[in-house]
Write a structure and sequence with these properties.
single chain, about 230 residues, about 55% helix, mainly alpha, 9 helices, elongated, about 0% strand
Length: about 230
């Protein structure tokens, strides 16, 4: 029977490439959501009329915070080879994306401040600013985070193959690495010579008389056929 503590890390292991693409995309989207309110005025793509790199409480709660949470979740997905931490990263990304979508609706009850109105002269640009700053950005993050969760939360056949490449035998409990194994009396065959274990091949019967006996028998056989 395998040691449960020995098998647990192998069951949680997974290839790092499993969440690499989703993690990278989530990092880029999180960085966009956190930085666009500060660099947007430089490219005439702003949601408020504040100058570039202007910090406000509303920007911190409604844009920077979900952007950082999403980026951290994507980083965990990108670098993690453990299924538990990868799932945690996927949930972080989902929460960050959801906050982009519903954060402004909860801004007034939570008193986080208001980011204002999009700076646009046409309805099309106003809609695009809404999509790229909040609702569309958040929906895309939630989609990628959910897809990443579906990939990393399930143990695939490839994970089983990778796990089987590890040593099958678990270390004996209570024996440290580098120390000799303890003598196990339970494996000694009852009635067998001392030191013989269960399953060990039986020793061949030694020839009677050893080497000299075989030589003597060979000499007698040759003398008999020679007529001596």
């Amino acid at each position: 029977m395998r040691n449960a503590e020995y098998d647990r890390p192998r069951r949680l292991g997974m290839p790092r490439s499993r969440g690499a693409i989703s993690g990278l995309l989530l990092i880029l989207l999180g960085a966009w959501g956190a930085l666009i309110p500060f660099v947007g005025p430089l490219i005439n793509w702003a949601y408020t009329s504040d100058p570039a790199w202007t910090w406000t409480t509303a920007k911190g709660w409604l844009e920077v915070l979900p952007g950082v949470v999403t980026a951290v979740g994507g980083l965990l997905l990108l670098l993690s080879g453990n299924r538990g931490s990868a799932v945690f990263g996927g949930w972080l990304a989902v929460v960050g994306g959801a906050w982009f979508v519903v954060g402004r609706a909860l801004a007034s009850p939570l008193r986080t401040g208001d980011v204002g109105q999009p700076v646009a002269s046409t309805d099309l640009k106003r809609a695009l600013l809404e999509v790229t700053y909040f609702t569309g950005l958040g929906a895309l993050i939630v989609f990628l985070g959910g897809a990443a969760l579906g990939r990393v939360a399930v143990r695939h056949a490839r994970d089983v193959v990778v796990a089987e490449r590890a040593p099958m035998a678990a270390p004996v409990a209570g024996v440290r690495s580098g120390e000799p194994a303890m003598y196990d009396e339970s494996r000694v065959v009852e009635g067998a010579p001392a030191g013989q274990y269960a399953g060990a091949p039986e020793p061949r019967e030694r020839a009677r008389g050893g080497l000299f006996h075989r030589r003597a028998r060979g000499g007698l056989f040759r003398r008999h056929h020679a007529g001596v």
